[in-house]
DNA sequence: GTATGAAGGTTTGTGGCACAAACTAGTTTG
DNA sequence: CAAACTAGTTTGTGCCACAAACCTTCATAC
């Protein structure tokens, strides 16, 4: 193994499963680029059904990675979601472990035994 | 959203779950750096129990991402695992989607609206 | 005013999967 | 022969992602 490889492996094994799940990773990524997002926007941007989105948001909220604000737009309920500071930190940490991993993988799909 | 963000999100949502699982990602990463690895080595390097490792290897083999060779080392059975070309390709494809994702995430954990 | 459908979600049900404990099979040691 | 070790596989379980079903309110048609 290359030097540093074990550290990258350990990083992979220690990945935060909450962030690692693709649906939640998509949500956090979208949220990291805006001040907030509406439920309906996330639904489209992340290609999730309402039910699925709802349950993922609940988990992210329970972990403190997003903040959910329910308000009324006229007479209709509207849910706004924003990433928290903890959420940004979690995403950054996740990103860094992925970077470490990616650096370990050979670029070409060739036998380098 | 930044330009290209939706493509990165789509990439995340389309991630190969087989490769995305941390344990298997660790296995493939180790294997990508050697011609083959023994069961016992993977067990240590990937910090997996035998049972867990065994089942992950079976899934990777069923998908054609690794090749498993059973032989005898003296009188003892020994299992050798190697990544296949398909495995390398899957890992490369996975890596590229992660790269696209990482480029979308702001570097600093600061409010950038 | 009352079906009909859409917006905006939440709750419920279920199939699949990661994980470890228990088990199998053979080997070495005392 | 019995105990303990090596090398793995099979079994059992608890969690979780996902979507279907459901709820409530508003808009529109009849």
Rounded mean pLDDT score of chain A: 90
Task: Name the poorly predicted regions of chain A.
Answer: 108-113
**Termini separation of chain A (Å)?**
10 Å
Largest beta sheet: strand ordering of chain A: 1-3-2
Number of strands of chain A: 3
Secondary-structure content class of chain A: alpha+beta
Main beta-sheet annotation of chain A: 3 strands, antiparallel
Based on the structure, what is the oligomeric state of the protein chains?
A: homodimer
Largest interface: A-B, 45 and 45 residues
Share of residues in helices of chain A: 55-70%
Give the ordered list of helices and strands of chain A.
Answer: HHHEHHEEH
Question: Would you write up a description of this structure?
Answer:
Two copies of one chain form a homodimer. The first copy, chain A, has about 110 residues and is an alpha+beta fold. Helices cover about 55% and strands about 15% of the residues of chain A. Chain A contains six helices and three strands. Chain A has helices at about 5-15, 15-20, 20-30, 40-45, 50-60, 85-105; strands at about 35-40, 65-75, 75-85. The first copy, chain A, has a three-stranded antiparallel sheet with strand order 1-3-2. In chain A, strand 2 and strand 3 form a beta hairpin. In chain A, helix 1 (about 5-15) crosses helix 6. Chain A is elongated and about 60 Å long. Chain A starts with a helix and ends in a 9-residue tail after the last helix. The model of chain A is unreliable at about 110-113 (pLDDT under 50). The interface between A and B is large, with 45 and 45 residues. Chain A binds a DNA duplex (30 and 30 nucleotides) through helix 4, helix 5 and strand 3.
